[in-house]
Specification:
With 151 residues, the protein is an alpha+beta fold. It contains three helices and seven strands.
Length: 151
């Protein structure tokens, strides 16, 4: 009986040690296991192209993207997580606020969108170049597909 209890305790502690993780730089979600119907899959890795948080601990949807940008939306980690191929919605999710639609500047098949904050007395800004037809960040300008200021 003690051996059975010890075995159960060890298997329970290994289950606790594992955690689901999300890497925003690669948009990959790694999960210990997923149950679909009556089938259980282990060590699941999913690449997420578009996502929205539907709920946490309940069925009530939650937001996650503010209509306006504040100081907390402008960090080097958020800037570094923006990658070629991302959509506007994905960049909104990474930064945590929506872009300024009035900031769009179109040039030869590219459109530059900006996320801005003026509340600090100086401008905080992240901008990125998107392909006008796909509205995905393009790398046609080499490493100059995004820029920042004020943080």
């Amino acid at each position: 009986m003690k051996q059975l209890f010890l075995l159960l305790l060890l298997s329970f502690s290994t289950a606790i040690a594992k955690a689901d993780t999300f890497d925003p730089a690669t948009n990959t979600l790694t999960m210990d296991s997923v149950i679909v119907g009556d089938q259980k899959y282990f060590n699941v890795v999913v690449r997420i192209d578009q996502f929205a948080v539907l709920g946490v601990g309940s069925s009530v949807p939650i937001g996650g993207v503010s209509e306006t940008c504040g100081t907390e939306n402008f960090t080097i980690d958020k800037f570094n997580a923006i990658q070629v191929g991302m959509s506007i919605d994905q960049v909104n999710q990474v930064i945590g606020c929506k872009f300024d639609p009035g900031s769009a500047v179109r040039t030869g098949g590219l459109v530059n969108y900006s996320w801005m904050n003026f509340s600090t007395g100086n401008v905080q800004l992240i901008s990125a170049f998107f392909d006008e037809s796909s509205l995905k960040i393009t790398g046609t300008m080499g490493n100059q597909f995004k820029s920042s200021a004020g943080f």
